[in-house]
Hints:
Two copies of one chain form a homodimer. Chain A has two domains: 1-123 and 282-313, Isopropylmalate Dehydrogenase, CATH 3.40.718; 127-273, Isopropylmalate Dehydrogenase. In chain A, 42% of the residues lie in helices and 15% in strands. The first copy, chain A, is α/β, with parallel strands linked by helices and 332 residues long. Chain A is built from eleven helices and twelve strands.
Amino acid sequence: MRIALDAMGTDLAPSAEVAGAIGALDELEPDIEIVLVGDRDLIEAALAEHPSVPAGRLHVHHAPDRVTAADSPATVLRRKPDSSIVVGLQMVKAGEADAFISAGSTGAVMATSLFTLRRIPGVDRPAIGTLLPTAGSSCLMLDAGANVDCKPQHLVQFARLGQIVAQDLMGRDRPRVALLNIGEEPEKGDELTLETHKLLSRAKGLNFVGNLEGRDIIRGVCDVVVCDGFVGNVLLKFYESVAQFIIGLMRKELQQAGESMDFEELFRVLDYEEYGGAPLLGVGGVCIICHGESSPFAIRNAVAVAARAVRSDMVRHITREISTADPPEEVP
Amino acid sequence: MRIALDAMGTDLAPSAEVAGAIGALDELEPDIEIVLVGDRDLIEAALAEHPSVPAGRLHVHHAPDRVTAADSPATVLRRKPDSSIVVGLQMVKAGEADAFISAGSTGAVMATSLFTLRRIPGVDRPAIGTLLPTAGSSCLMLDAGANVDCKPQHLVQFARLGQIVAQDLMGRDRPRVALLNIGEEPEKGDELTLETHKLLSRAKGLNFVGNLEGRDIIRGVCDVVVCDGFVGNVLLKFYESVAQFIIGLMRKELQQAGESMDFEELFRVLDYEEYGGAPLLGVGGVCIICHGESSPFAIRNAVAVAARAVRSDMVRHITREISTADPPEEVP
């Protein structure tokens, strides 16, 4: 298995990517190879910092163009054809890589994925699925920001995509799918969630467990929670920032007190880096989106997510599932 | 000043209300009187638990009807005319009380407020303003759940209502007003926030500082953040639950380690009870909505919020401000 890893995406590129790739190769299955895509000189300088590099399993593919914040996502394919994002995704398209991982501009990765890997037939809106740590087992939330204005049938499709991820990547049997809402009762919600609840209730082949309130996310009582990309994005960013903030404050206070307590369970729940990356779901290939702030640890975990997606044949699973689902979800 | 306090609202009613009222009278200005509204026998039994009660400043107003979860909010006024919610709000309407506080059904308090206190002329949608603790100073978020489907002009009006609360209740000079969104740039957002950003940018008399992402809420960089009631409600409930969860986990781990560290700053930031209650803004009287889980400490703080709203003449301030704002906010 070959995984193309954008080496130019993180705030600390390419050193975080290089260190993450080496970590992944050390720990994951030996049939995994990684292709670092980006500026060859910079990548090789970063590689030189490491005493040993797994022989024959770590490759470099030169891609000199740089995507910056000034690039409009939709123009990257045309204007930056030799960027790590475009080159990496084209490797997947051409079958030269089995998956692509990037911590670069989410908008650019999404737009370029849509242009190169294309939507899977029947998928209306590809969505970003992100794992939220909870007090119980982790919960996949989608959409985390790919689609800000959604219709009920989009959320139903997110539920189907999420169900597959929960099975293939999270190992959940008969995943519990919930709808993020402002109350538990079916008659609570805004226009979007009221209608979505009706559709989910009668959708076949989904284990829909009803509405989930904001307060219940942390309890970890479902495997998949669907929402529109606006709510999902606000919530995700808020969660991450609160987690970082709390960990920072605790470490500071512990240090001042001369204590070195390890709040193991707490840090586990707050550490979203453990999940590494968020798959872009509904496109014709494995594409994992990471944070710009990803550490080597997060990159290593993103490689693990990509490897699971490839091994489980997730893209084919989605293709099959979407083509057999009740067609347009009987929507008005 | 007389404050009507619904004694039947919390999960531990009326003892949390009675203890909170006594705490408030002990600590707040001596011109404050509290009228406990609810079942007289139950209230008196709860009062009997306290060794001393401030003489002449704590009254009981009998209201035997009980509002339950089975009551549709819109029917409470008609079907439960002798409930604490209806009686308390009618006291405000009749000038027998200067403010009403309730931890009962939010829907019932809102609906009954609209029927009795009425909307302030020019206010399209009364909103719930709730204080979020942050790393900096607290931030007022509205709407926290009164209006789930909003139009851009509603969010502009929330900004005006929030500005007044920030001045009158939070003591902020020239409050910074932000729009909750998925990116900082004006061209980011869904249909609602894109249009709202335009309106806020050209609204007169508002210190609009632009979009605020989910990740920046905790930093405390603005005084007021506006959003629709769906997003606000999900976010608020999520925040509260995360805070409770983290505090619970920390206490458990500290206890197991035999430690007794006090994470003072952390607990302050996470303790939303400090803010007590959320004003319902845009109705013709002071109405403070509390959590069903409110402790005596939260009730005491809600009384303080109510007292500040009365003293600052907040309702008249809103009336004046809304009537002089550019009329229908130049909306399509």
